[in-house]
């Protein structure tokens, strides 16, 4: 029997270890056959390369689950509107992708693999084109003016932006952000607030090593600068029907979407107890603690538990936030929201599995590169 998922995985395994080369070849082919496409991409392509592969791997992994596959690709198509992607570009991309896979698949690459990738790409491109078309009432991106820029620690800033037209999103979702310092290089950041009457959006950003967009947002961007924002996405949103108490687990700037969810709760919550574990390396990195404590003083249902993993002098919980949650509880009837680095999210999921928390009660976002 023809199994698309089996053949895709089998053929992907042939090239997986040479992902970088596949991506390099793919872009070279694409730009050669259609040089105008080069202008749609950032000057520096290294970040972009791993993004393409991330998207392919994600699509291939979800092919068994048509609903998730379709949903993911529709949002990817919607998101690609910011790159000025047009339906006719998809054919050029498909041909370049197939040629790259064939080249690196080597002798074991078969006509059957060729066919399955053609079929899969056909489905991928149709879903993406559909997603883009469904979003036609929204602009492909929004301009937003930075109205406030606060340095909160050595390398963390909180920015407030005012979109020139309102952007609708749900608390817990993220948006892509581009600065004029790295044109066409987009990065995802969660909005750190529930929708406000003046439509302003806060972002929590840490400048890290080679994170160009993050560094620019923390160190170069000033009030008055214009950013471009696009495509709110993500499913780490509140279930208003649930009556269970809530545990938020945030690592570093992963606090941003949790803060938005918390603000949303302040609008209607009366009887759900909420614990927020906020982990950071040291006191300096607990960059939003005063604002959280202020919220806790106003809402008796809210308890904040800060924790430092690398600050022995801190007069509070010590250790990784994923471990600190085990010292509290019991957590047998709670909704969980987890946000932080991929390793923090994994560690927390392991802890929660150990505490027998059913996975359906845990929300997190694979806050990845699309
Ligand atoms: N800025 C934003 O809007 C959002 C950011 N994120 C992600 O959140 C992360 C935040 O990173 P940083 O601020 O640099 O945090 P960090 O690396 O300083 O970590 C903060 C805390 O998270 C916990 N942690 C980190 N790694 C862990 C591990 N391997 N095992 C167990 N616990 C661990 C520890 O308690 C640590 O003190 C980034 O990966 C970012 O992509 C996620 C959602 C939104």
TrEMBL record:
Domain FAD-binding FR-type: 139-239
Its EC number(s): 1.14.12.17
Enzyme class per UniProt: oxidoreductase
Domain Globin: 1-133
One GO MF term attached to the UniProt entry: 2 iron, 2 sulfur cluster binding
Domain of life the protein comes from: Bacteria
Database matches in Gene3D superfamilies: Globins (1.10.490.10), Nucleotide-binding domain of ferredoxin-NADP reductase (FNR) module (3.40.50.80), Translation factors (2.40.30.10)
Catalytic activity from the UniProt record: 2 nitric oxide + NADH + 2 O2 = 2 nitrate + NAD(+) + H(+); 2 nitric oxide + NADPH + 2 O2 = 2 nitrate + NADP(+) + H(+)
Keywords: 2Fe-2S, Heme, Iron, Iron-sulfur, Metal-binding, NAD, NADP, Oxygen transport, Transport
A Pfam cross-reference name: NAD_binding_1
Cofactor: FAD; heme b
InterPro entries: Cbr1-like_FAD-bd_dom, FAD-bd_FR_type, Flavoprot_Pyr_Nucl_cyt_Rdtase, FNR_nucleotide-bd, Globin, Globin-like_sf, Globin/Proto, MRET
Family the UniProt entry places it in: Belongs to the globin family.
Protein name: nitric oxide dioxygenase
Origin species: Planosporangium flavigriseum
């Amino acid at each position: 029997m023809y199994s698309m998922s089996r053949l895709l995985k089998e053929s992907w395994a042939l090239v997986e270890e040479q992902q970088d080369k596949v991506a390099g070849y793919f872009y070279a082919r694409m730009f050669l056959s259609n040089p105008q496409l080069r202008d749609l991409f950032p000057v520096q392509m290294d970040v972009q390369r791993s993004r393409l592969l991330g998207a392919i791997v994600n699509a291939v992994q979800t092919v068994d689950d048509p609903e998730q596959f379709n949903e993911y690709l529709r949002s990817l198509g919607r998101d690609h509107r910011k790159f000025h992607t047009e339906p006719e570009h998809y054919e050029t991309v498909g041909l370049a992708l197939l040629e790259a896979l064939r080249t690196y698949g080597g002798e074991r690459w078969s006509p059957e693999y060729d066919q399955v990738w053609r079929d899969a790409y056909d489905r991928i491109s149709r879903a993406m084109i559909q997603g883009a078309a469904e979003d036609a009432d929204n602009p492909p991106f929004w301009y937003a003016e930075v109205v406030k820029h606060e340095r909160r620690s050595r390398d963390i800033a909180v920015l407030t932006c005012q979109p020139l037209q309102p952007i609708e999103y749900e608390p817990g979702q993220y948006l892509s952000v581009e600065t004029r310092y790295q044109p066409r290089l987009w990065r995802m950041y969660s909005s750190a607030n529930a929708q406000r009457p003046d439509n302003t959006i806060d972002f929590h950003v840490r400048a890290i090593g080679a994170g160009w967009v993050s560094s620019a947002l923390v160190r170069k961007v000033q009030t008055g600068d214009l950013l471009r924002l696009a495509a709110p996405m993500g499913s780490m949103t509140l279930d208003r029907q649930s009556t269970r108490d809530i545990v938020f687990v945030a690592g570093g700037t992963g606090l941003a979407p949790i803060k938005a969810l918390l603000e949303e709760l302040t609008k209607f919550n009366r009887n759900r107890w909420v614990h927020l574990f906020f982990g950071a390396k040291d006191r300096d990195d607990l960059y939003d603690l005063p604002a959280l404590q202020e919220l806790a003083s106003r809402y008796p249902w809210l308890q904040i538990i800060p924790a430092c993993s690398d600050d022995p002098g801190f007069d509070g919980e010590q250790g990784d936030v994923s471990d600190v949650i085990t010292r509290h509880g019991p957590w047998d009837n709670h909704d969980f929201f987890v946000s932080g680095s991929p390793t923090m999210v994994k560690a927390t999921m392991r802890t929660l599995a150990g505490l027998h928390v059913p996975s359906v009660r845990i929300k997190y976002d694979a806050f990845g590169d699309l």
